[in-house]
Amino acid sequence: MQVQTQSFDVGTEFDRLRDENGSVGAVVFFTGLVRDLADDPLQEMVLEHYPGMTERCLADIVEQARQRWPLLHVSLIHRVGALKPNDLIVYVGVSSAHREAAFAACEFIMDYLKKDAPFWKKERSESREHWVEQKDSDLQAAKRWDKPD
C-alpha cells in the first residue's frame, strides 16, 4: 500500500501482480483518473490525507479482502497532492488463481477505499474552490459487501 505524490506506471504495477511459478490465473486492476468537471473546467484537484492513519486504513482494507478471497498479490496506490485532469489518481490491482476472486476483491477494495479511506479532496475550477463531499452512492456501493448478521 502506497500513498504518494508521484505518478505510477500501470504496466510496471501489472507486472508486480504476476509471479514466476505460474500460480496466477487472473489479474484484475482498476486505474482511476482525475476527471474534468462537466459544467466548470477543473484546474486541479488537491488531495490531502492523514499520514500514518491513511496507510493503516489501506492495509486494513486489503487485509479484509485477503480474508474474503484467496488472493496471491495485491497492489494499492493512491496519490495525494495537486493533480490535473486526466492524471492517474488510484491503482488497485489483485491477482488470484481464479478470476472470480480477483474481480470481487478488486471491486471490494475500491468500494471500501471510497467509503473508509481518510482522503480529503478539494476541487479548484475556473469559478470556484470547494471540498468534495462523500457521495451517498459510494456508501451504498460498499453495503453490498456487508456480511449478514
UniProtKB/TrEMBL annotation:
<keyword id="KW-0501">Molybdenum cofactor biosynthesis</keyword>
<protein>
    <recommendedName>
        <fullName>Molybdopterin synthase catalytic subunit</fullName>
        <ecNumber>2.8.1.12</ecNumber>
    </recommendedName>
</protein>
<comment type="subunit">
    <text>Heterotetramer of 2 MoaD subunits and 2 MoaE subunits. Also stable as homodimer. The enzyme changes between these two forms during catalysis.</text>
</comment>
<dbReference type="InterPro" id="IPR003448">
    <property type="entry name" value="Mopterin_biosynth_MoaE"/>
</dbReference>
<feature type="region of interest" description="Disordered">
    <location>
        <begin position="125"/>
        <end position="149"/>
    </location>
</feature>
<comment type="pathway">
    <text>Cofactor biosynthesis; molybdopterin biosynthesis.</text>
</comment>
<dbReference type="InterPro" id="IPR036563">
    <property type="entry name" value="MoaE_sf"/>
</dbReference>
<dbReference type="GO" id="GO:0030366">
    <property type="term" value="F:molybdopterin synthase activity"/>
</dbReference>
<dbReference type="GO" id="GO:0006777">
    <property type="term" value="P:Mo-molybdopterin cofactor biosynthetic process"/>
</dbReference>
<dbReference type="Pfam" id="PF02391">
    <property type="entry name" value="MoaE"/>
</dbReference>
<comment type="similarity">
    <text>Belongs to the MoaE family.</text>
</comment>
<keyword id="KW-0808">Transferase</keyword>
